[in-house]
Amino acid sequence: MFLLMYTTIENALKSRTGLHDVQLTDGGEHADLASTVAFTLAKERKQSPVIIAEELARELHGDPAFEHIQVTVKGPYINFLFGPSYVSRTLEEAVKPGYGSQPQRRERVVLEHTSANPNGPLHVGHIRNSILGDTLARCFRKAGYRLEVQYYVNDMGRQIAIVVWGFDHLDTGAMDGEKADHYVARIYIAANRELASDPGLVAEVDTLMQQVERSENATVRKFRSAVTQCLDGFHVTMGRLRVHHDRFVWESDFVRNGDTERFLSRLHRLPEYHEDGKVWLDLKAAGFEKEYVLRRTDGTTVYATRDLAYHMWKGKNFDRVIDVLGADHKLIGGQLQATMHLVGEKAPDIIYFEFVSLPEGAMSTRAGKFVSADELMDEVTKRAFAEVTVRRPELNEDTRKSIAVSVAIAAIRYDIVKISPEKSTIFNWKEALDFERQSGPYIQYAHARACSILEKAGEFSEAYDLKDPHGIALAKHIAKFPAIIEEVVQDLKPHLLATYARELADQFNAFYHYEPVLKSEGITRQSRLTLVTAAKNTLKESLESLGIDAISTM
RNA sequence: GGGCUUGUGGCUUAGCUUGGACAUAGCGCCGGGCUUCUAACCCGGAUGUCGGGGGUUCGAAUCCCCCCAGGCCCGCCA
Fold first, then answer.
1. Among all strands, which nt has the closest C1' to A453 (CA)?
2. pLDDT tens, A442-458?
3. Length A537 CA → B52 C1' (Å)
4. Among candidates A546, A111, A109, A139, which has minimal Cα distance to A324?
5. Which range among A28-32, A364-368, A478-482 has the greatest average pLDDT?
6. How far is it, in rounded angstroms, from Cα A456 to Cα A384?
7. Residue A47: per-residue pLDDT
């Protein structure tokens, strides 16, 4: 409903002013939408903006499209207020299951996220990537796109060679109950320590890497095995986090299937191509001073080469390519985009997120300095269980456990997604364990309250006659949900949904407090119950788009 | 040194792309509210040079320039 109103007003103003751009602003407490075109026109018409605003408003009053939109003027501002029909139509839409879902679109989108090196467990930095990516994925699906989510497995890297070397020389077996990815990290950390103390051993790692590039079977098998163990651990972690990938794509496949060589051969005709022992591209024109090396003097390819082959493949199979990458990838991401442009292929849209560090400094798998996602989830779940037990002692243990799991994931996912990706953050246990604040559980709670009302209400027939301010404000906020999903997808900004969901819970709580539902009677009761249904539904859709369980009791 | 990026009350943070009506919320602080649909809630109050300086504009947190501070990147690593 909101988008419809927006375009109605926008078009009316465009045709009357002759302006191409008549951006509407949020009306705040004054209105549902507002326009400041009067300022823009004041200069060219050499007229007071107040007079222009009044004139425009007069014209709009006679417009049949504005039958249900109240137009008022306050100084130079033209305010638009939506009437009862807007509210009732919103409710009719929002009570339907799947509210906010757009019809299926033709466009096929591939979204890559997480793609952490398989040399140790996912830590709190990696899951910022996972949560951003997974939330975006959920929004894309809701917006009707045909989406495939991919994890790019870096199975040829030096890190993996070090893990393999470690398994060859230092393996003492997994400890009791040790998760596979944590076990890999232990070997990786130990191997790095060995290599640091005896630099002569580095040559052995180099040999392993060359063998893999030549696809030597025995070594390839070792790499696969090490990587697979780690990925098995990742699956468990991401499953708990409700993060899903449709496909795992292995870097080495692009070497073995010849795509990497084919891509290199395509570059020969480019003026930017240079071959002087090594192969490199000159990307100065695109703003990159460094030589972009794609083949070493020893003939082997580098990470960037295989990544290009991977993106080439994605571009051929999908209409739109999106990557979620850490801010440390900004340079190589830019180089990759520039190169894809040069060869006339689809360049990915890249969303970058800044790092999560620890109070004592940057995280490092190699040095063993990190807080793993598993550890985080364990601790937060423990804390959530204690909390549920205090609040709902009458519930049985299994129910409390189940609520605690949902609450913990809500707290973690929301804490991460609510922050703009471009902000670097410092991980803080105290904050992670505290969900009695602007949080995922807060939104879940609003949903649970709505469920509780509906459960007690029993049967009722829908009605759309809202008279009181908090209910109307809530309905108007519900109306914006589809527009928010659209905005998240267009701008690749999942945190907009986090903000929206919190505001929705705010509105619901205010309504809950001031406008009793079950105690009201007649049409008011029916209308409020309809509103609660719509709110519950919108909260549920919002939560699920955020990857958070919409639980009915907590 | 160069590039990218962030800097908003004591702390965390929205808004910045597309400039407009008293800058968004949370935590913490002060004061209220559970015989009333789940108080993981609600209401009121105090707290702001929107990093600093200049500029553009009728109007700047938002655009431009300079400076300061933090983060990241600058490998024939991945």
1. B37
2. 999 999 999 999 999 99
3. 48
4. A111
5. A478-482
6. 27
7. 86
Name the residue with the least CA to C1' distance from nucleotide B75: A293
Measured CA to CA, the distance from residue A539 to residue A504 in angstroms comes to: 7
Q: Which nucleotides of B are covered by protein (CB under 7 A)?
A: 2-7, 12-15, 17-22, 25-27, 33, 36-43, 58-59, 70-78
| CA–C1' A362–B72 (A) | 11
Q: Which ipTM value was assigned to this complex?
A: 0.95
pLDDT digits (tens, 9 = 90+) for A249-285: 999 999 999 999 999 999 999 999 999 999 999 999 9
Burial class of residue A317 in the structure, from the number of CB atoms within 10 Å of its CB (0-12 exposed, 13-18 middle, 19+ buried): exposed
**How many Å apart are A431 CA and B28 C1'?**
13
Residues A440 and A373 sit within 8 Å (Cβ to Cβ): no
Burial annotation A485-497 (CB, 10 A radius, 16+ → b, else e) = bbbbbeebbbbbb
Q: In whole numbers, what is the pLDDT of chain A averaged over residues?
A: 94
Mean predicted confidence (pLDDT) in A376-382: 96
Q: Which amino acid is located at A224 in the chain? A: R
Residue A95: C-alpha distances to residues A101, A232, A443, A547 (Å): 13, 40, 18, 21
Which residue is nearest to the C1' sugar atom of B73, using CA? A328
Q: Are A94 and A538 in contact (CB under 8 A)?
A: yes
Alpha helices (H) along A318-396: 330-342, 373-391
Nearest to A118 by CA among A74, A72, A184: A184
Distance A416 CA to B53 C1' (A): 35
* Integer CA distances (angstroms), A544 to A98, A134, A440, A499, in order: 11, 11, 11, 14
Local structure of residue A248 (DSSP, 8 states)? E
Which of A36-45, A89-98, A293-302 bottoms out in mean pLDDT, i.e. has the lowest?
Answer: A36-45
Asked whether the CA dihedral A365, A238, A225, A151 is positive or negative, the reply is negative
pLDDT digits (tens, 9 = 90+) for A426-439: 998 888 888 766 89
